[in-house]
Amino acid sequence: MAKLALNKSALSKEKQRKVSYGRYLPSLEMKQKQLLLERKKAEEALALCRSEISSVEASIYQQLPMLAVENIQMDGLVVVESFNLEEENLLGTKVPYLESIVFKRAEYGYLARPHWFDELALVLEKVMKLKMQEQVLNIRLARLKVAVRTITQRVNLFSKVLIPEAESNIKKIGLFLADQERAGVVRSKLAKQKQHAG
Q: Which domains, ranges and CATH numbers included, belong to the chain?
């Protein structure tokens, strides 16, 4: 780090630094609050999605107890044909969301499969969509956590390092200049006394 110059020019620069840091800090703190709010929303959305997955899975076994029969072939009954992930910009952080999902059902004869397969296919689609949403919400939350950590580091840099450092430098320079001014006054008084004495 460069040695601090103890002059009026350096004092002026330090005061300007402090003012500019003071201007940036409130906007950083506001962004931090907004990102914390978005992270909380993402956590709540993820918890809600997981709760919904659990309740749908629990209700499947109540509504369709026949799923316990092991000789029924359900492989490929419902598959994801396509899905569309989009990204949105939340306070400078790109986060994904599930725009759409298209399922494909296996073709099966109505006489060859049990009558409840249609209902099962609907429930499977719902569970698969929820599980995809859960994965997307996990990514969204992870990105928001990184953004919160980054903005918190910036807020701390300004509030705990840069601003206090500028204040400390202003104080050091101010004290030095005040001491120099006092010393100058004392020297001039001594010089006047010598002139009057001599």
A: 8-188 (1.10.287.3240)
Cα radius of gyration (the chain): 34
Indicate the SS3 state at residue 72: coil
**How far is residue 47 from each of residues 23, 42, 76, measured CA to CA in Å?**
38, 9, 29
HSE value, Cβ hemisphere, 13 Å, CA-based, for 37 = 8
For residue 103, which of 70, 127, 81 has the smallest C-alpha distance?
Answer: 81
**Token pair recorded at residue 44:** 């709540």
Per residue in 99-134, pLDDT (tens digit) is 999 988 877 666 666 677 778 888 889 999 999 999
CA 41 to CA 54: how far, in whole Å?
20
Contact status, residue 52 vs residue 137, Cβ threshold 8 Å: no
pTM: 0.79
Q: Which of 140, 160, 136, 157 is nearest to 35 (CA)?
A: 140
C-beta of residue 33 within 8 angstroms of C-beta of residue 151: no
Nearest to 122 by CA among 194, 180, 68, 64: 64
Locate 39 and state its tokens: 């992270």
